Amino acid sequence: MTHLKTSRLPAIGAAVVYILLSASPAHAQPQTSDARSLLPTLLDEVVAQMDQRLIDAEARTRPLLDEIESQIELPELRAPAAEAVTAYDRPSDDGSAIIVEWLAPDRKAELRERARQQAVKLTDNPTLVDSLAAIVTNELFVNVTYLVQVAKSSEDLVAKSPEDLEAGLFVTIPVTPGAATRKSGNLKYFGLAGENENYCYAEIKPAEIFPPQGPEPITVQQVERFLHDGWPQDAEPSDDAIPVAAAPLQPLLDRANKGYVPQDIRDLLERVRLYARITQFVDEGVLDEEDGIRAITILVDARPEGQLSPAEKADRTWLAGVKLQLRLDRLVAEGFLRDKEAARVRDILPLADQLEQAVAEATVLAESAKEEADQAEQAARAARQAAKEALDEADDETRPQAAEDLKAAVADEKLAKAETADAKKDLLWTRERVRRSRPRQERRELDWLVRLQARLKECDDDAREDAEREINAKTYYFRLAVSEGARREYVTVDRLTIGDEDGAVSVDVPDQWLVLSASAHANAFKWFRTNTLVFALVFSGIVLCFIHVARRNPNLFLRKIAGLDAVEEAIGRATEMGRPAFYVHGYGGPGSMSVIAAINILSRVARQAADYDTRVRVMNLDPIVTAVSQEVVQQAYIEAGRPDAYDADDVAFMTAEQFSYAAAVAGRMVRERPAAIFLMGYFMAESLLLAETGASTGAIQVAGTDAEHQLPFFITTCDYTLIGEELYAASAYLSREPRMLGSLRGQDVGKAFMMVAIVLGVIVLTTAAFFAAREGHVAGWLDHLAAWIRHLFEAIS
Amino acid sequence: MWYKRTIPLILVFVLGILAFTQNFVPHPLSEKFLKTVTDWSRIINGFALFLGAYSLLHMHVSRIRRQQPGWAYSGFVFIGAMGMIILGLWNDGVGPVRASPDPQGTWFNWGYESIQVSCSSAMFSILAFFMASAAFRTFRARNLGAALLVVAALIVMFGRVTISETVGGWLGRPKVFGDIVKAIMDYPNMAAKRGVLLGIALGAVAQSLRIIFGIERSYLGGGD
């Protein structure tokens, strides 16, 4: 209702009058239903009117649109020009990707222009021309798909006939022009600028397309044996097996061994490989025949994990154990396991299988119990609803009994809900419950096996990463086609260069497919972070320069920071009152810049406190920060000549939990009533809990943080607040050491530079936007300058 | 002094430069360096927890031994810590029950869920009251700046609740207060926040330089 315009208020007023009238005894309709139905009726009328306007507009423009669409010639399907297609190593990366990039014809703009030309012939109204052109473009435009074909060998791409091509000695990656693909990987665009939208971009990750394969190629004999005797008598072949059975075997295996098959076929062939190994081990007597048949039965089932019953999941886990068993000898030979450990694995695997079977049985029972509990809950809910309805309809005589029934039904429903919750929890924890029911020694053995498998997986992951790096480093070959429906146009060239650099010969080859090659390299520098590096170096140079200047001229002027001037005042106050000062580090760990800054400030505060013989109690949330703080405070006491006054208990670890920490510190604030509280470091939600409690004790509070979301809380509740950078400056400010003060001056100069850059940037970008809006174009130099400024300040991850 | 000053300073310099360089180098070796350092950091954190536990227990033992005011509270630390340790170790957290029908209902989990988590939630919920009291103290228009703050805060609060759309509807633009709030948050508020963030970034760089080049040494203890 809040979205209605004021022009509709009279209509709503009329509706209200109607409702009031309808509430009179003369109207038999219940008033509530009228009130509920009238307003939606009015809204429906408004929507209907708007729809009618659209229909009228469509009726007026449809003939024009039909006329344009009958006359217009659609842009033909054409492949990008050969010289506009490039393949290169993805710049500034870890050597895992190649980029194939091409200048994509903007067919949508071309279509819109053609529609405009036709529309101009029908009407003089420029707004209508634009609208018609836009509608026709939307109605007629069909997006094309680019096909990037990737092969390991150029021979696979330079096929002799279309049939060879369709046999697929390459992997095809479809690319649909869109926001994610209309860009360039060229560094001159920094990956982001607007000009790059003329390009289309495909990121090819060789290790994902051609993942590492098993050590030995799959043979026809292995597949034939798999097909012949792999199927158990009572198991139906899965659908995934059909491509293997139907396809000509040798060509398929050739492709598979080169990696040119889809993932599902690859998975299937991987099972063939495992089957071959299982049968080999059965033949050799390593695995008994019963286990071999069970393994094969599990192996032919290609369903995903989510579709399996608990017993089938247990079978999969058992198969993983069998795979481990088959690897044991190799693992011993590689030195990963000792003989004794391999024997231990063999002993534990049956126990693991027993556990999995027990878990499966218990899960079935728990699922059944949960189902029953769900049904009972539904029945109880229905009974409660029925009881409520009975109460609503009850007369005075039956009302007490109905109320009692409802009370009993509510109690039953509550009980049923509790039972459902218990059953759900029971199901969730079935595995753990069964595990705990095993003898302690057995549990230990099973835990050891789990740890071993985790370690093995880690090693396998490392090996896979090495293999992927090797795959990525190879040279790959690319061909590009544009496709619309069944039509396909390849990028072609008329001349080919054959031979090496010394003896290269160009030959005429009309309509030869363009084949590009590239390989990925691990780069030594992230070029797109050049701006960050330049800024970091320039700013570091400025800071170091001012540090040098400060050594010669120590009397640098620095603006006063009230919060830091208050540090001495706060310590003095604590001394006068004979109460301790609290120093609270907050939520950050040792890696946080603000905590490092806070430790630096602690050093100064502790030194002053030691001089004045005042206790400083430091409360930490992180054990490493505790250790560092203890060292810092102890050193401060030593330098003050009072090492005996240092008490290690003054610098204590409170807890590692956020709100427990807040409770512990707040409790000590209330009990010990410190005279001064320093809240320095990184804070989150505990900031206000601490600062408000501190304020209630009457202590003078100085806070400093770089967590900008917490700053308002500190500003509200503390006497002085160090905002962001002031926290970092504090140690230097308090030390008054010339070199440190020099760095502060450098920091200020950096800020001045940023301010000037921001103002200039705003002027240039605003001017560019102004000219673009008024004159439709921007002078080249201004456009370049605006783009350059945008690039300069873009942080790219 | 060599092992307490010079070696740490050399380590800080070398690792500081390496960490800076790592940010610009995408090579797998660089990524491996980062992973190794991160792993080591986790390992050190794990061991440091023993130091933390020692510090905590030592402090509370001292408080009890010296009978400092409020020393009885320290007893709760031992009751809590020892209780949870015993429950955690006793029969894998099940406690005296040999085989619990519901592992989630172990005594150890009960201790964590019903005491620790509940108390943390209670602390967090107190925040709402503290916010109210802090806001009450802040929203007193003592000068022009404070008055502006009050006005902006009231508009933002009002614009965030649904009734503002009804009131805006009476004025002819249901979203008027929402738009004003958006303008306040997107321009003055965001500008101030980014100003603070830029200052923080520059301050962090300056502090890092002071530490990497050994100019700032107070984190090692002492003031020089």
Description:
- The complex is a heterodimer of chains A (797) and B (224).
- Chain A has 797 residues and is of the alpha/beta class.
- In chain A, the strands form 4 sheets. A 6-stranded parallel β-sheet of chain A has the order 13-12-11-14-15-16, sandwiched between helices. In chain A, strands 3, 4, 6, 7 and 10 form a 5-stranded antiparallel β-sheet that branches.
- In chain A, helix 14 (339-393) crosses helix 16.
- Helix content of chain A is 60%, strand content 12%.
- Chain A has 27 helices and 16 strands.
- Chain B has helices at 2-22, 28-66, 71-89, 107-138, 144-159, 163-170, 176-212.
- Chain B is mainly alpha-helical and 224 residues long.
- Chain B has a domain at 139-218.
- At the A-B interface, helix 15, helix 16, helix 18, helix 20 and helix 21 of A face helix 2, helix 4, helix 6 and helix 7 of B.
Total strand segments of chain B = 0
Radius of gyration of chain B: 27 Å
Q: Would you give the CATH topology of the largest domain in chain A?
A: Rossmann fold
CATH class of the largest domain in chain A: Alpha Beta
- What is the chains' assembly state? heterodimer
Could you list some keywords that capture this structure?
A: 797 residues; alpha/beta; six-stranded parallel sheet; five-stranded antiparallel sheet; 60% helix; disordered N terminus; B: 224 residues; mainly alpha; 77% helix; extended
Topology:
The complex is a heterodimer of chains A (797) and B (224).
Chain A: H1 9-22, H2 31-71, E1 85-89, E2 98-103, H3 107-122, H4 126-140, E3 145-151, H5 154-157, H6 162-167, E4 171-175, E5 199-204, H7 206-209, H8 220-229, H9 242-246, H10 249-258, H11 263-284, H12 289-299, H13 310-334, H14 339-393, H15 399-428, H16 430-437, H17 440-473, E6 475-484, E7 487-490, E8 492-498, E9 505-513, E10 516-519, H18 530-552, H19 562-577, E11 581-586, H20 593-612, E12 616-620, H21 623-639, E13 651-653, H22 658-672, E14 676-682, H23 686-696, E15 700-705, H24 711-717, E16 720-723, H25 725-735, H26 738-775, H27 780-792
Parallel strand pairs in A: 11-12, 11-14, 12-13, 14-15, 15-16
Antiparallel strand pairs in A: 1-2, 2-5, 3-4, 3-6, 6-7, 6-10, 8-9
Chain B: H1 2-22, H2 28-66, H3 71-89, H4 107-138, H5 144-159, H6 163-170, H7 176-212
